[in-house]
User: What shape does this take?
Amino acid sequence: MKPREIVPGVHYVGAPDFDRRLFDALIPLPDGTSYNAYLVHGRDKIVLIDTVEPQKLDVLRSYLANVPRIDYVVSNHTEQDHSGSLPWILERYPMAQLLSSEPAKLLLVDHLGLAPAQIRGVADGERLDLGGRTLRFIYTPWVHWPETMSTYLEEDKVLFSCDWFGAHLAQTGLFSDCSDCILGEAKRYYAEIMMPFRKIVQKNLDKIKDLEIRFIAPSHGPIHVDPASIIQAYRDWTDDLPHNDVVIPWVTMHGSTGIMVERLTANLVGRGISVFPFNMASADIGQLAMALVDAATLVVATPTVHVGPHPMVFNAIVLANALRPKVRFASVIGSYGWAGKMPEIVKGAMPNLKVEMLPSVIAKGLPKPADLEAVDALAAAIEAKHRELGLF
Ligand code: FEO
Assistant: This one.
């Protein structure tokens, strides 16, 4: 296959993966994904930026069949979906020098078994002259792992950002079809791997704010032709102020918790609050993660299984705790059969969430009128808290 031109001298040599349905054995991929790699030709030097998941090495090999020389290989990120084919590249092009951020060097040795002598760490802001084209390396840590960096092609104004601004989407086209239509997939990706590092992502956004960018070329999903749109979306997602949203991960066993979730949802909606209930017996955790990006309040709704929460809801709590959304308030509602410590166990399982706990509502068996009035009172308390934050 011939490398596919993005602009003269800059080509795509990556691979879509239409069949992949799970990433990191955790993240659902309803639209597949891609592993993007790029070839940049200067007058004197040729550079490969990132590689592909080893399962797709044949695609990269095919693109490079008529590329006899590569002088540098840039590894923006060590995770194996981008670095996993580096050993083959370095064997095929033994004269190529592997460039990474300084913190990436040891990771590349640990994860791929590369020899330290094969890797040169570049400094933040360092430039590499290719002859008529210049790469600038910009440290952008924690746009997944601590070692991540971006590479900016100055003359063509292309930012190669790896996971940052990426989207899990497989397609044959190289570019996003429109500014907004990629934002759903991009938000899913941000939520699942970058939300825990929201504050650092904000700093990275500040770091590139004065760059003139024509294209953002990430290593998953299409190339952004309207960089301002995806950058603004990241600004919104990482902003400190949440939206007027409530997320409710829930499960019901015999209907009691379900009645309470319906009551709470209807009451909140009547107050003008957006509600995102997720039945964890069938929910896509990617959708849950996306809803958590903006939510001001998390209400965990679960029956009691033995003495604690239902395991499927517990899974949602563990995920929320790991993703560290900017949620400000939380509550627990649900039911129990004879006894239990469900609310205490739920609260104890989310220490990373810096939330103000609102009153719990726990019914014994079927919710009685007093329980439903308590659910209504919880809705009123949520509205009051959202108003204090200025979310209406
Ligand atoms: Fe696409 Fe963090 O790897």
